[in-house]
Design brief:
heterotrimer, A mainly alpha (about 50), B mainly alpha (about 230), C mainly alpha (about 475), A: about 50 residues, mainly alpha, 2 helices, B: about 230 residues, Cytochrome Bc1 Complex, Chain D, domain 2, 2 domains, 6 helices, 4 strands, globular
Chain lengths: ~50, ~230, ~475
Amino acid sequence: MIETFTDINYSFFGLLNQGPLTLSLFLHLLVVLPMFWIYFQEKKRLESEN
Amino acid sequence: MSRKKVSVWSDNRFWQRSATWVTGFASLLLIWLTFDTMGQISMGNQKDIDNHVVKRVPSATVINYKVEYNMNNHRGHEVPVIGGDDGKGNSLFKVKEKFFGRDDYSQKEADALLHLGKLASQAKNCMDCHTLLGNGAYYAPDLTKAWLDPAWGKNGPMQAMTGKSTKEEAMAEFLQHPGKYPTHARMMPNLGITPKEAVGLVAFLKHMATIDTNGFPRGFGKIKEGVVYAKTK
Amino acid sequence: MQRQNNFKYESQKLGSWYFTVAVILFGAQLVLGLVSAIQFIYPSFLYDILDFSITRMIHINALVVWMVYAMIGSVYYLLPDETGIETVGIGMGKLLFWILTLAVTVVVLVYIFIQVGPATQATIWLITEGREYIEAPRWADIGIVVVVLGFLANTFLTALKGRRTGIMTVILSDMIALAGLYLAGMYFTDNISMDQYWWWWVIHLWVEATWEVMVGALAAYALIKVVDAKREIVEMWLWIEVAMLFGSGILGLGHHYFWIGTPEYWWEIGALFSALEPMPLIGMFVHVLYDWGKEKGLKENSGVDTSSNNTPALLWLISNGFGNFLGAGVWGFFHTLPQVNIYTHGTQFTAAHGHLAFFGAYATILTAMFYMGIQGKYGIKKLRATFASKMAIFLITFGVLGMTVALTIAGYEQVLIARAQLGATWDAFFVAQNQLWMSQAMDWRLIMGIVTTVGFFYLVKDLLTISKSPKNVYK
């Protein structure tokens, strides 16, 4: 499943790129995960409002 | 303590904060990726060629070398091969090739030629008919690997048509008087390209053919030979 | 009927000036598009006089510039409405309008009469920069930046002084990005990979990020005005759209970095992020229809007149939801995966996508803004679509869809014959161009281009006369 490194230059992103969509899924997770934190913070705020 | 029922999903502040986060973070990632890519696509120099360092965008001095576009088993697609092939699609950086009668262009001379050619490609609006690296207009052929097009080679029609005996001279002649050498009802216009500019443009084309485009265009110029590629492991 | 100027604010009047120039440039875009389409069929047409490279360049430059004009006009138009005050530097705004218009005229004249120059920096500075879509010479680039900075200052100072709405916040932050990105286009390098890397920052991050957010904000404003949609709901949708558009669009830039010399990891980034780009467009589509239906239902229940305040604008808004999703979303997704794109990159497929996307995403909503301008100018309470309004929207939409289908077929044929079958060489290109399927597609593209142009004449007629038609106007 994890392929040998095929690109010319080694780099952080290049290494993450060796599995099935691993790089893209990783970046998506980084973008989306903190939204959970925002969600629960906003939930708490709404609950405590008047 | 009873919990109030709230809807975060229909709350403006939640979406506003999410939008800010997503935009800011995606921008930061893009900047990080850009730094990484900049390092990888910076242009090489003759030292890289001497040390057999493969660059995505090689030195302008590649005009001194033989250039091919061959299948590379490790990469899984075709790559530019500079100065001879080791049999696996890797550059040997050895075999030279005359470019307008010379194969000893210094770094400075080669850089100057490429600079002139790149400027000419913009001053003449090449991209508004042709595609370069696949980007541009779709009125005329893609020029990414034009240097390697069999039409300009020994067995192609263009050298005979222009009355020249080398690829680079045929290209330069065509560029200066495209109206004289129609290949199709759709002809290239006469853009007032001078002999010097034509040499620069051909250098620019040869250099562009050595850029590693991750296998684009696939199978360029290979179909006539009927070569079938398979990734061998 | 009195033909007086009913604008409450000078800013709205300035907006209408921008709209006027935008419509004229829209016409220029169509004329040059027709010439280019004819050249595909009869290559000797204007050969060595006004070549395809020039006609196609002006075709697309006129498109970009009319859309920028219409966007600036829209912002000046909605600014007093949103902030509740007159734009602060209105005198400067008007001066900048004339400077920009003069500069655009000079650039176009140079394009037409000088066309190309010798391979020197002077050509880059004075005649053409030769980089597709942003060919404007360097002097004009700097002029544009100065004008845009003035425009930014104007909107910021006004927004700071007046009311600050969600729509205004989005527009302001979006415009900084939009203006800043243009700087990436003023750049010369011998390294073509580097050149195209930054070039896409301007093109992609304008068209698939900041422009989309801009029209999202304009749609939000228009929905409030046209169907009395509730501001809180509209602004919530707007924030969702911003999150999704920027979330997918910024890194979706990767789909332009598959084959220009950039590393392989862009394949993955470009594929997945840009595959998600249609999602916000579906969202916008649902949003427009949902709001329209909901507001209509609410009005029905309370027995009020359910009609919208500006039917032509509403019709164009609906075609925006539809066209943006179809043109940018579906046609974009068609060829955004690298596995497909290695064959479709640089074919008429891209042209097909470009035609429907620019029309669906931008032309529609900006035309809706033209109608808003008409409504404001003549102080009309309710504007009804005339026969010409309906003909305009029908013919333009039908024409653009027709061109898109024709170009898609041409692209498909090119992908299979020139690329997959024959290997992308000079010969392969012309073998594909000579196919009957290609030439028939090009014939249909011209026919549909003419249909679009006829629709445009109806649009101009309607914009000029709708206010005079008592049947269609309720004061």
